[in-house]
């Protein structure tokens, strides 16, 4: 009995101890849980709440609609439309790429070109990049894929804005094109602090106005904050910031005049720029041959790129902006102005023109060996006497001619709103010292000025510079920067602002001197080298023909049939009309075509007929 009581008491003590231990342990655990709860809910609340939101909320960028581009009359040159694309993240797909393409091809049509381009992109991008597989998917195909999307992890259907150029090849070098954003583009955007504004955007301006006005055209990216499940499925939109569409651009180009000029260059190589002298607005900008910018929007295929890149006619080169040429006799009006302005020769001073100018024992001959006898400045411009201007070269001097011609834009960056403009060469003694390394080559010889005075020698200008100089001359020396964008238009408010509104400067030149040259240029059309091209015109134009030598014949007679076609002379023409109140100034070159009077001047005549007569009747 005693043993039983003792055992019972011990059992109760042990139970009590166990209860205390369990209670203490429970309280300890509750304390730990409470401390942890306080740590998570109070001490770490802000950081963990933000992290939870990031896990719960996906921020989806919304690409803005790119601004449209129109001509001066509202004709659309670049616009947008909506379509769908299929994109693939290689790291997320199941199975091989070929298996994916075969399975997906049973639901959505995939061409061999789509497959080939996708596989090429796989090599160029990392496994976590979103790579385009197929574009231009219509709504029926989009809905069909959406119903089977669960079978294709890593493949996504996306709506997007697509750029389109409805005019095709017309004005392609002006408008340019957009293309996929490259690593170089991303680096440049990152350096300029604009990369964040391109999240969700696939394309960026690559050439032309699309590139030089990229910031205005692109707009501002919007975003959606979307609540998602743990698997990434969207539940609801928590917040939305709408994208701001890009500004619309109205160009100064008249697409009717542009098309007329392009027709006249069909089958030829060359360039043409037409400017409105009173405003500096570019009315036509032709680079022939051209290309279709639509080919580049989603990445040009290999065959099309090969044809464009390997063509001997170089259709991708922007000739008015990048090509540099000797401009021949079209330079003479500016040499004449320099002689008058620098008091080197009076307008009525006559020189003997026996058909050549002799200097240093060498004879520099007139074109066609023509001899004009006693010749003053007016007659020299009308008949295009080389001898008269040969003799002016040493009198003016290369440095003085350089400083005077510079004011008209020769050898200078005009500042037109396109990327890639070349400066060309306006020679001087200093230029030659900088251009050549050997001291013997750095010396300027007096005989070199003779060739420079007739637009040959070291002279090498862009057609844009010649057009700008012609426009400035037509505008009596008032220089207005040439520009292609007439105005920008805010797509939300409709407010517009002019791109260029003020002249840059006035060239200090006597109006009487300008009148001497202008009167001669008008007579070039009436009775001079361009009279046949303008016979019967109902308006009075002014201009100067030019023929620029490409290949030196070293004294032998020029015969076009005996020379390779691409070594033949260039045909040039600089002109404005009407002569008494210019509305349009044109400079053009037809490469390797021969005489400016027969090959270039008729093109300007046809464009004047359109601009001054036909357009105003319609």
Describe this structure in words.
The protein has 618 residues and is α+β, with helices and mostly antiparallel strands. Helix content is 38%, strand content 21%. Strands 2, 3, 4, 5, 10, 18 and 19 form a seven-stranded mixed beta sheet that branches. The N and C termini lie far apart (132 Å).
What coarse outline follows from CA principal-axis ratios? elongated
Helix content: 25-40%
Overall radius of gyration: 36 Å
Number of DSSP-assigned strands: 23
- Taking pLDDT < 50 over at least 5 consecutive residues as the criterion, the unreliable ranges are 551-558
The span between the termini is 132 Å
Amount of beta strand: 15-25%
Please count the helical segments: 23
Mean pLDDT, nearest integer?
Answer: 88
| Largest sheet properties | 7 strands, mixed
Secondary-structure-based class equals alpha+beta
Short description:
By secondary structure, this protein is an alpha+beta fold. The strands form seven sheets. Strands 2, 3, 4, 5, 10, 18 and 19 form a seven-stranded mixed β-sheet that branches.
List the helices and strands and how they pair.
Elements: H1 2-43, H2 45-56, E1 57-62, E2 69-70, E3 76-88, H3 97-105, H4 112-124, E4 131-137, H5 139-148, E5 155-164, H6 172-175, E6 177-180, H7 183-191, E7 203-207, H8 208-212, H9 214-218, E8 222-228, E9 234-241, E10 248-251, H10 255-264, E11 270-276, E12 281-288, H11 302-310, H12 319-322, H13 332-341, E13 351-353, E14 356-359, E15 362-365, E16 373-375, H14 377-383, H15 386-396, H16 398-406, H17 429-435, H18 439-442, H19 446-452, H20 463-474, E17 478-479, E18 485-489, E19 496-498, E20 505-506, H21 511-526, E21 542-548, E22 570-577, E23 584-590, H22 596-599, H23 601-617
Helix pairs in contact: 10-23, 13-15, 13-21, 14-21, 15-19
